[in-house]
Design brief:
Residues 22-46 are annotated as: Disordered. Residues 70-165 form the Rieske domain. Belongs to the FAD-dependent oxidoreductase family. It comes from Sciurus vulgaris (Eurasian red squirrel). Keywords: 2Fe-2S, Apoptosis, Electron transport, FAD, Flavoprotein, Iron, Iron-sulfur, Metal-binding, Mitochondrion, Oxidoreductase, Transport. With 598 residues, this protein is α+β, with helices and mostly antiparallel strands. It has 13 helices and 38 strands. The strands form 10 sheets. It has a 6-stranded antiparallel sheet. Strand 5 and strand 6 (101-105) form a beta hairpin.
Length: 598
Amino acid sequence: MGGCFSKPKPVELKIEVVLPEKERGKEELSASGKGSPRAYQGNGTARHFHTEERLPAPHPYPGPQDCVEAAVCHVKDLENGQMREVELGWGKVLLVKDNGEFHALGHKCPHYGAPLVKGVLSRGRVRCPWHGACFNISTGDLEDFPGLDSLHKFQVKIEKEKVYVRASKQALQLQRRTKVMAKCISPSAGHSGSTNVLIVGAGAAGLVCAETLRQEGFSDRIVLCTLDRHLPYDRPKLSKSLDAQPEQLALRPKEFFRAYGIEVLTEAQVVTVDVRNKKVVFKDGFKLEYSKLLLAPGSSPKTLSCKGKEVENVFTIRTPEDANRVVRLARGRNAVVVGAGFLGMEVAAYLTEKAHSVSVVELEETPFRRFLGERVGRALMKMFENNRVKFYMQTEVSELRAQEGKLKEVVLKSSKVIRADVCVVGIGAVPATGFLRQSGIGLDSRGFIPVNKMMQTNVPGVFAAGDAVTFPLAWRNNRKVNIPHWQMAHAQGRVAAQNMLAQEAEISTVPYLWTAMFGKSLRYTGYGEGFDDVIIQGDLEELKFVAFYTKGDEVIAVASMNYDPIVSKVAEVLGSGRAIRKREVETGDMSWLTGKGS
């Protein structure tokens, strides 16, 4: 399977793709909630995906008047392994040449609209340069996450050495395709006290599980329950874009759930699971029987335990309401963020333009230290300091002081006192699995739910996925790990659904995550826990670098800024089963990596 990286061309480390300013802002726009990833500008008006816009699968080409066909290039214009964006008049198409064959697909990643031509072609699929989603070039199907939708696939024909592409105008404008799904035909749906599949938790894992079941033809009852008051939404966006409204964050519109018979119970808290009688009890006394159960409860944020912890205007960010209130309270006032991990730093970055002052309090000596190491952490810290963020490192909060019940000051163990009108706490999270303690479903000492590669718990018919599980990570010798990230939750939800249907799928995805601060993105792939060295190529000062995290003589994770698509390239190498050796990255010769495509 590693054949796609043969014949390395000796290329130096210049593989960054400089996007035109226009394109460059777009990721941050979509990642900052100003443009919902599901709303597309078509004829100047935002178009939301509706079920009736889905093109029927067998005939993706409606009447001739709805189609457009054009010669887009000469057969010799593209080498094997090359991709090009071509214009069809009604929109662009991604043209791919692989093993002598041409394929034409949608050109934008449906997740946040990244230009796929800047991505990585390998093993018959194209990987998004921004967040790592993968699409099969023969079908357009989504094969790795994040995101929910696939790409349209267009007809290609070759006549007199010219390549012609034919596409429906509608598909060109929509730029996304929802896979064909079954509808629910269970007569009792919505009324009875029993369901075929019950999913506890409506984050990425829960939603992808429900959608996968429908895509695979499952037509029985599915109930998705959530503590939230909203339908499933894009939670990673909360801390990057605190102003975003619930409707901008929604992953699917209300009509979608109705059309496919996925019932969502909001503000529904499960208090007990009775595995012997296959029944759950909700806080309000409602009981529901199930035949298959997915546990995807996610995690609960840790809170401060210091003196004054009950004062007003101290928040953990879990919901759009939390995020919106923080922004309102911070406007022109003093904000303090406790914890310099992903959530805390994203919030601090977002508040710099809104608040009078932003201070960050952290126990470690640099932000992100455990995750990204000392040097990268320091470079990011400098970027924050240049944006007026003040750091109080190697200390913690000893007291929150209030005036008339509302936060006024944060007192540190170092006895420093910081003025504060609002405080955001981002000091980590614990699995939200308290309700399972007496259930007989296995939990480890930290409260995580251990599962096997098929996302099965110790109880038959009970699966678990997302932030609350530990699972065997295939390319790190099946080491049991917890990876509380968005992409991984999607992948686990899919595998759980496949195994509910006895398809014997195993989790094999390579972890991929990102963070965005001050309009800059850092991307990361792999699993870096326990790294013992960091090799940096490029320029840390300029925030234009690749950091390779190694353990012994193996590269176990990679982070980059302004070096696309290197992280997606590495994810493909790791996904192909090939190990990357420390000596290969120490020399700065990246030919093993930059051999474009196959």
